[in-house]
Design goal:
lyase, Gyrase A, domain 2, 4-alpha-hydroxytetrahydrobiopterin dehydratase activity, 3 helices, 20% strand, PCD_sf, Pterin_deHydtase, alpha+beta
């Protein structure tokens, strides 16, 4: 299990992510792709990685946009698992264009 590091510490290690609004300790990012097929490829690649980590994002998809919220429910806040998955998602998004 990963220990809680908090959103602020996570954001120091990431680009383009933001602290969630409200009192939940979460990080959020919206990805925009050229089309639905590319957004779906991003979600599929992320799902495979997340399932391997046993760490699953909260997300919402409409056409070419994927809104992501990351937090680790076991520690009630942001952990190093969130930073790892966020980094993977950023790299995949860059690869997909």
């Amino acid at each position: 299990m990963s220990g809680k590091i908090g959103a602020r510490a996570a954001l120091e290690q990431l680009t383009g992510w933001a602290q969630g609004k409200g009192d939940r300790d979460v990080i959020e990012k919206t990805y925009k792709f050229t089309d639905f097929k590319t957004a779906w490829a991003f979600m599929t690649g992320t799902a495979i990685k997340a399932d391997g980590m046993d760490h699953h994002p909260e997300w919402f998809n409409v056409y070419n946009k994927v809104e992501v919220t990351l937090t680790t429910h076991d520690v009630d806040g942001v952990s190093s698992k969130d930073v790892e998955l966020a980094g993977y998602m950023d790299a995949l998004a860059d690869k997909l264009g």
